[in-house]
Amino acid sequence: MKLAKHEILRLGVFVLLLLGILAGAWHFVFRPRDLLEQQMRRQIEAKRAQLQKLNQATASIGNLKAEITGLENAIGFFHSKLPSEKEIDKVLEEVWRLAEANRLTTKGIYTARRAGASVFVAEGSSQREQPIRMEFEGDFAGFYQFLLALEGQPRIMRLSTMSLEPRGTEPGFIKAEVEMSIFFEKQDS
After folding, report:
1. Can you give the residue range of the structural domain that contains 149?
2. Are residues 66 and 109 in the same domain?
């Protein structure tokens, strides 16, 4: 079977038309759809990455809440150890009694002025530091027991300086000068 020239031409135009339709469909339908699908996949991956970061942040928030609660409890504990400004005299009386209980003679208790800002108390906070200078005489063993008892006190205190020198002819008899700080809660006036 032989095809005539015009039938071959018609068949060629038909094949070209079909190929043109396929090329047009690929160019105008499938390619844009493929590009859109790729863009959507990138967006989905970006959203998944953000969701993963959000999940990690949410998990750390739970840890932060527990840590904040622990820190608030610690702050509450230390606040319970701070006397109010009005109770400093009671703290000094406790120190005096500890000295007497350990056979020390208290020669003097003096408040001292702080030179500059305290490194232990933040500026602007309601906590304060009051330096106290004390002079004692007595047996060294009693002084040592006094220091141990002072350490066991529920109040927050800090010994900053201490000097010991022998007194009299009796062995172990000393004169002690101690400077310590008592931390307290400042009362609003």
Report:
1. 85-185
2. no
Instruction: Please give the pLDDT value at position 182.
Output: 78
Is-above-0.85 flag for pTM? no
Helix ranges (DSSP H) in 83-154: 88-101, 140-151
Mean pLDDT of the chain: 81
* In a shared domain, residues 51 and 123: no
Tens of pLDDT, residue by residue over 61-87, are 777 777 888 888 877 766 666 656 566
| pLDDT tens digit sequence for 119-137 | 556 566 667 777 888 899 9
The answer on pLDDT for 110 being more than 90 is no
Q: Are residues 74 and 89 in the same domain?
A: no
Residue 103 CB neighbours (<10 A): 13
Same domain assignment for residues 29 and 92: no
Residue 151 near residue 115, CB atoms below 8 Å: no
Are both 94 and 172 inside the same structural domain?
Answer: yes
Task: Please list, in sequence order, all residues whose beta carbon lies within 8 angstroms of the beta carbon of residue 163, skipping any fewer than 6 positions away.
Answer: 176, 177
Domain count of the chain? 2
CB proximity list for 79: less than 8 A, separation 6 or greater? 185
